[in-house]
Specification:
It contains six helices and no strands. It has one domain: lambda repressor-like DNA-binding domains (434 Repressor (Amino-terminal Domain)). By secondary structure, it is mainly alpha-helical.
């Protein structure tokens, strides 16, 4: 259902609600919100893959040479990580990642 149809049904599109709370696209506030959302999604994916692999945070940390606290921060979306670190994390789970620019 597109935004026009949602409005016709007297429903508010999610994009409008996000803009209302966090600003329009490409504003500093919205950019911060979008980055935090991305970090949350990456953290949740890492957590799911780690659990699927049957590993604890500590075991994953040992595999890639880091600390459990770092794994915890990433899974909570509270770590600003480089792409190379992201690759290392998922490789430690026997997984690969791909990046797509849209």
């Amino acid at each position: 259902m597109d935004n026009k149809e949602l409005r016709r049904l007297n429903l508010t599109p999610i994009e409008d609600l996000i803009a209302e709370d966090f600003g329009e696209v490409n504003t500093p506030e919205r950019n911060q919100f979008d980055m935090e959302c991305d970090a949350f999604v990456i953290g949740e994916q890492l957590k799911a893959e780690r659990r699927r692999a049957g590993l604890t945070q500590e075991q994953l940390a040992d595999r890639i040479g880091t600390k459990k606290s770092f794994i915890s921060r990433v899974e909570k979306g509270r770590a600003d990580i480089q792409l190379s670190t992201l690759v290392k994390l998922f490789n430690g789970l026997g997984r690969q990642i791909s990046v797509r620019v849209i």
